[in-house]
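The instructor's notes for this session suggest beginning with a concrete chain rather than abstract definitions. Hand out the sequence below and ask the class to guess, before any prediction is shown, which regions might be ordered.
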Amino acid sequence: MKAEYPRSSFAHLFTCVALGASALLVAACGGKPSGANNNNQTYCESVDECPAGMDCVGNICVWPSDSSVPDADVRVPDIALSTQHLDFQSPLLGTEVVLPLSIFNLGQSDLVITQIVVDEPGGLQEFHVSQEGTVQITIAPGAEHVLQVSLISVDAELDTGSIRFFSNDPDENPVIETLTSEYKGTADVMASVFTGDATPPYPDQNYPDCQVDAQERPLIDFGLVRFGEPQERNFVLWNVAVGNAPLTIQSIAVTNTSGAANTYRIFAFTQDPLNGDATALASLPFYLSAGDPPNAVPPDLLYVKVEFDASVDVFPQEQLEIQTNDPESGQLFVSIIGVVSGCPDGWWDVNQNPADGCEYACVFQSTLEQCTASGDTPVDENCDGMVDDEDAIGCSVFYRDHDLDTYGAIGDYRCLCAPEGEYTATVGLDCNDNDAAVKPGVQERCITPYDDNCDGSDNDVNAQGCVNYLRDEDGDSYGRTGDTRCLCYASGFYGTTTGGDCDDDPSACGASCNPGKTENCSTVYDDNCNGDNNELNALGCTNFYRDFDMDGYGHQTDYQCWCYPRGLYTAAQPTDCNDNADAINPGATEVCDYVDNNCVNGIDEGFNLQTNVSHCGSCNHACTNAHGTTACVSGQCSPTCADGWGNCDNNKDNGCETDLNTAIFCGICTNHNDCPTNFFCNIGTCTKKYTNGQTCTNDVMCQMNFCRDGYCCNSNCGGTLPDCQACN
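After discussion, reveal the predicted structure:
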């Protein structure tokens, strides 16, 4: 639940800001019936008040979209908003931001807005609309109605909400507008003590009246207080955030280390009580907006008054604990100091002995002692019987140096005017003040179990006695060669002394690659880091056969198992019967040459030298016969002659080479069967030559040895007469 607070605390900061924006017309979804308009609208509370067949929607009687009334007689309104999301961005706390929102009627009849509802989580309403609740806003077709939507952020929470618009739009009822805002930056608390004589300090001004103690913390100094005379001091809190994130002051309380915290009373005001307004009390939690210097907007202030009733004779030094939402210093402490005296002016009861009363003469100058400058006479400024007190103004921090190594114990210090006792060191970084060998600046030693040089680690790089550890990012106990750190013990990625890891990247091969692995052909990596990802007999390897002649076929028995082909071992098939000749392989064609060319079924398979006329008796020994047929029988050529031809040279290889129709060889090869004079050889028979006029095919057939135009003639003149008489 968000808590409210008096809005008067922000009255001086409220500035109306209008953020102009181009109206982006966002039409509501859904189609509408169209047709002639009937402007005589009937208002209704229920469907019973509407004419038969009509519905009551948004207090207006309308025809339903599925009515049997013709479209030409039905017109309805259509609501649309200029935007469906108003973003107030980063408003200042307590500052009103106003944005316009337009409502459009895209329909053909009057749009009537009957109710506008603003919804916000948490119960605290910070969004407002210029018209909300039950309304009666009528918007004619094509017209626009503009509303003003405002945000006044009053707490340190992000603001979200929505607006619901109820209307007589039959398709969209209600229409919802979302509302958002956000804060930028983070809250940052600042406190300043002031006397009320000057304008309270702001973050962008110097504030010389701001008081701080020796540790630079805010300080409320009551000074010298007379017993029984109440005193009061004032200070302010504000938000110095860069941005507009609000600061929440959750609580303000007084510590009770002295047991006298009840002598204090705390009051918070929204206005400066020193300027006459001591009635504007503030309730907690209280929210403070950061200033906006570019727009001359000052920060909000919370005025705090601390009253001390002086009812004790020793001043109760306490602190104010201020709880805030500042993410860096959520708890702010303000010291309260002072001195109470019941003695007459100039006299003090230092020894607390009632027998001698106020025995110490001293003029009070300040609650805080002042360190005596060199050559000056010491002065007891606060009249406590001592000079140069601890935490005196001008003191220096000295750390306890028990082991006298010039470095003081961490956190054990006093603010002194001069070294005192064991508090002599000006540097407090000693992590073991009982051992002079342990201090900043010495070299870390691996032989010791502690931090020798107080740097927060007992495992420094290059410590004395260190060991080289290699980077092992993938955690496989093998490190990157060359990437080492000399440490006392394994630390972080540097956790192994074994090198040789060729892939230490967990997003790549990582722990699957190191010298202890077996090469695996299923990966693209060098699995065992020996510089080769294609090893002989690797896991998952394939037999590749030697292919010396590079014909794609490998030696039948010479093979090696690789991830992929390597060197001469490239063939996947071991079927080459002669790996020295690239023409001999299973892909070649077998020829008759006394060689197994295709490495299948032996030498010259398919060639029968006993019957093959092309290879009769031996390869490439062909049987030829131009004048007849031939065969290979038992490895010998066996020609058969055509009529009129004979194998007169008895060479069976060349067949029937002799024409037996010549006069020399008339019918037979032997004895030269010569024909008598005036006869010619006619198909192996001597025939008497033809006389003139008989048909012939050559001169030999004619007695006169002239065959012209197919007839025997007695001369070479030729002619057409059967008896060739014209040639005579």
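Then share the key points. Residues 323 and 331 are 5 Å apart (CA to CA). Residues 1-39, 66-72, 196-209 have pLDDT under 50 and may be disordered.
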